[in-house]
Amino acid sequence: MNLEKYDLTQVVSTAVSATFEGMAFTDAEPLGEGSFPPAGSEVFLAGLDVIKPAGGRVSIVLPVRLAREIADNIYSINENAPTEEMITDTVAELLNTLAGLIVGAVAPDTAAFALGLPETSRIDRWQGAVVSGQGSGIAQKGPETGKTFFFTVSGETLSVIVEGDILSARDGRD
User: Fold this and answer.
1) What is the Cα 170 distance to its own chain's centre?
2) What is the pLDDT of residues 8-19, one digit of tens each?
3) C or N: which end of the chain has fewer Cβ atoms within 10 Å?
4) Three-class SS string for the chain?
5) What is the pTM of this model?
6) Among candidates 61, 67, 81, 59, which has minimal Cα distance to 23?
7) Each residue of 144-153: pLDDT tens digit?
8) Cis bond upstream, residue 53 (ω within 30)
């Protein structure tokens, strides 16, 4: 596991900005401090495993309203509102793009990297906790490991959680 040494906060911020500007046509601004959506909120929770060059997991939590707005921006050529399936697919593709940019930024230039498939779930009564544990599937558990980054997107809070060996990139530049 020879990961490049980068400032993970900068890597995640750059990846989130590129993903949301490129796919959702909206800005994402980092929040110095943030919090998960309040208990009882409707959210989408999505995660995928980082298989190589280092094990880990990248997950996102975003309010349903924000997911619907992003899907509407993407599918705006359609006269009808996006379906629930379109919204779920949009969340999965946002996560896949975001994780690819994060891992691609910290993996050595010569390293191949592999990601698992996104697991996406809509939670109608969020309990206020995060996904935790590589390969754990979609579950609400306490923040046992990992680092969480918060962003504001269209007035809503997006949470990005990075876990596992991929975190070794966080200690700055050599």
Assistant:
1) 17
2) 889 999 999 999
3) C
4) CCCCCCCHHHHHHHHHHHHHHHHCCCCEEEECCCCCCCCCCCEEEEEEEEEECCCEEEEEEEEHHHHHHHHHHHCCCCCCCCCHHHHHHHHHHHHHHHHHHHHHHHCCCCCCCEECCCEEEEECCCCCCECCCCCCCCCCECCCCCEEEEEEECCEEEEEEEEEHHHHHHHCCC
5) 0.84
6) 67
7) 568 889 999 9
8) yes
